[in-house]
Specification:
Oligomer: heterodimer
Largest interface: A-B, 33 and 30 residues
Largest sheet of chain B: none
Number of strands of chain A: 12
Structural class of chain B: mainly alpha
Mean pLDDT of chain A: 92
Radius of gyration of chain B: 20 Å
CATH architecture of chain A: 3-Layer(aba) Sandwich
Helix content of chain B: over 70%
Radius of gyration of chain A: 19 Å
CATH superfamily of chain B: ABC transporter involved in vitamin B12 uptake, BtuC
Distance between the termini of chain B: 25 Å
CATH class of chain A: Alpha Beta
CATH architecture of chain B: Orthogonal Bundle
Order of helices and strands of chain B: HHHHHHHHHHHHHHH
Largest sheet of chain A: 6 strands, mixed
Order of helices and strands of chain A: EEEHEEHEHHHEHEHEEHHEE
Mean pLDDT of chain B: 86
Number of helices of chain B: 15
Low-confidence stretches of chain A: none
Number of domains of chain B: 1
Chain lengths: ~260, ~350
């Protein structure tokens, strides 16, 4: 699905992203974790087309990312950003409907019947029915991210990129929204790449965890393979115990 | 009926109501002035049945082009203001933010100074110079704001402020040096709709059609642009191209308007605010309403400017500021923190 080779990008003097090789397989749920400044968000920005001046090769579905127009990229990849706000008073439908722009003809004024149906479906899927017609800017942080998830669903892409979308949310909202995305992705065979700050969340939902530091990929494997006391200390400089989840056979960390 | 409840309904009846209100006000402002005509006289003239040649001449060749011209200039300023506010995502954005007004004033003053020093004069010189410098100052703002291939919004605003200061200070310098010759320029700078002719009306109409066509075709893209560049990229749009195209068209439209009517402030700032407050920020709806709202506002200001001290005239820019500033304060206090 995604094949990265010799990816290099530097920003200023202090930051360098350097990924020699990374392959993401179809319908994998992959998490990226790592300390601040590890290059996680930069990688997401490159994949979503915001940063373009990188060197190296990124192959998406057998063609080079550099050959994708913005429009074609948006047909393949949907993004849920860390936080989204607008100073204008758009209703939630207006926000969600932007997901259909890549699929509409260049000069179309209103949504097609099909687009309207897709938007309605994703509103249903994300339980936003009661928010129809509400102003986005008046919603709480959790509700806003739910709208952004609905928006990403409505884009009907094979790949979903989540850029620490739950980092501003309380644990309850994080769990609800992650369950929503996980179920959606597994049912529809979507490939998900998600940045997490919460290591336990990453372990719970991911098929595979990539640990980044200083712009490099340090470890890459199943949660049980890469989450242990030594690696957590090495990467995060965090003293923690790693224990097994009482019902699922995955590692969880607790602070020492 | 409660106004707020009414305006929350579907857009269509609202646009319709606004449209007929505009027609009625146009008729009213055409008939009232230094000389008052009856609606009947105005309608007879419009339909070519007016027997009184003097009435026909005044209504057809002076009153109508002036009122229609003011309406169209108001529309152009309000629509451009709306587009710029949406793209720049800044409520303070208005057509003059990017240096247009300072460039235009400089052009006018510079031309007058040239006339004074070299005795040099050309046909429509002041208009040509002010248009040219309005465009030039905007270009300078863009060159200054450019970072790589992008035009970050903050840089645009800052460059606009800097270029405005630069042009304004040279304008002041000229004014101090040649003040005796520049009094009429100052009055022109404050805006005047008194000389508008049918040719101006046709040109403004053409500009407005171009603006609205572009907005209609790009309405979805414009909606996303107002949500930010990243959102535009996520939605499959290259923000830079469309932003540049729309800003340039707005700048050209406003520069032409300014070169003919002088600087008329507050229309491009306040009308889009009020419209979006009433009917939301969707680009096409808000722009159509800006055409009508801006038009109504400026024909009203024009009416005040020619009637209050009749037969003398107030500069229309003074009227729009006098009405606009208190309105703006009221809107600002009422809207809370949303635009």
């Amino acid at each position: 699905m995604i094949n990265i080779k010799n990816l290099n990008f530097s920003y200023g003097e202090n930051f360098k992203l350097n990924i020699e090789k990374l392959n993401i397989n179809p319908s994998e749920f992959v998490s990226i974790i790592g300390p601040n400044g590890a290059g996680k968000s930069t990688l997401i920005k490159i994949l979503s087309g915001i940063i373009k001046d990188y060197s190296g090769e990124i192959i998406l579905n057998n063609s080079d990312l550099k050959n994708f127009s913005h429009k074609n990229l948006a047909k393949l990849i949907a993004v849920v950003p860390q936080e989204f706000n607008t100073i204008f008073d758009f209703d939630i439908e207006s926000i969600i409907s932007t997901a259909r722009i890549p699929f509409s003809s260049r000069f179309s004024i209103s949504e097609s019947k099909e687009d309207k149906e897709i938007i309605n479906n994703s509103i249903e899927q994300t339980d936003l029915n009661m928010y129809r017609g509400k102003k986005f800017s008046r919603l709480s942080g959790g509700e806003k991210q739910r709208v952004m998830i609905a928006r990403a669903f409505a884009q009907l892409t094979d790949i979903l990129l989540l850029d620490e979308f739950s980092s501003h949310l309380d644990p309850g909202h994080s769990q609800i929204l992650l369950n929503l995305i996980h179920t959606f992705a597994k049912n529809k065979n979507k490939t998900v790449i998600s940045i997490f700050h919460d290591i336990n969340m990453a372990c719970l939902y991911s098929d595979r965890i990539i640990i980044m530091n200083h712009g490099f990929i340090m470890y890459d494997g199943k949660p049980a393979e890469v989450i242990n006391k030594k690696i957590i200390k090495e990467i995060f400089n965090l003293n923690a115990h790693v224990i097994a989840h009482p019902t699922k056979k995955i590692p969880q960390i607790i602070f020492e | 009926m409660n106004l707020k409840k009414f305006t929350k309904g579907k857009n269509f009846p609202f646009v319709f109501l606004f449209f007929f209100l505009s027609l009625f006000l146009l008729l009213l402002f055409i008939s009232k002035g230094t000389i008052n005509f009856s609606f009947k006289d105005v309608l007879l003239t419009i339909f070519g049945r007016q027997d009184n040649k003097m009435f026909e001449n005044i209504i057809l060749n002076i009153r109508i082009p002036r009122v229609l011209g003011s309406f169209l200039v108001g529309s152009i300023l309000a629509v451009s203001g709306n587009i710029l506010q949406l793209i720049i995502q800044n409520p303070l954005a208005e057509p003059y933010l990017l240096g247009i007004s300072s460039g235009a004033s400089f052009g006018a003053v510079f031309y007058t100074a040239l006339v004074k020093i070299f005795g040099f004069s050309i046909f429509f010189g002041m208009q040509t110079f002010s248009f040219f410098f309005a465009v030039l100052s905007t270009l300078l703002v863009f060159i200054l704001a450019k970072e790589g291939k992008k035009f970050p919004i903050m840089s645009l605003i800052l460059s606009g402020v800097i270029i405005s200061f630069l042009f304004n200070s040279i304008t002041t310098l000229f004014t101090v040096m040649y003040w005796k010759n520049l009094i009429h320029v100052n009055i022109w700078l404050l805006g005047s709709t008194s000389g508008l002719s049918w040719n101006d009306v046709y040109m403004f109409f053409g500009i407005l059609i171009i603006l609205m066509t572009l907005i209609t075709l790009l309405s979805k893209q414009l909606n996303v642009l107002s949500m930010g560049d990243e959102m535009a990229v996520f939605s499959g749009i290259n923000p830079e191209k469309i932003k540049l195209l729309l800003i340039l068209i707005c700048v050209l439209a406003v520069s032409i308007a300014v070169s003919i009517t002088g600087i008329i402030g507050f229309v491009g700032l306040i009308i889009p605010h009020i419209i979006r407050m009433l009917k939301g920020p969707k680009s096409l709806t808000s722009s159509v309403l800006c055409v009508l709202g801006g038009g109504i506002f400026l024909t009203f200001a024009d009416f005040i400017s020619r009637t209050v001290f009749s037969p003398a005239e107030l500069p229309i820019g003074v009227v729009t500021s006098l009405i606009g500033a208190p309105m703006f304060i009221y809107v600002m206090k009422r809207r809370g923190n949303k635009l």
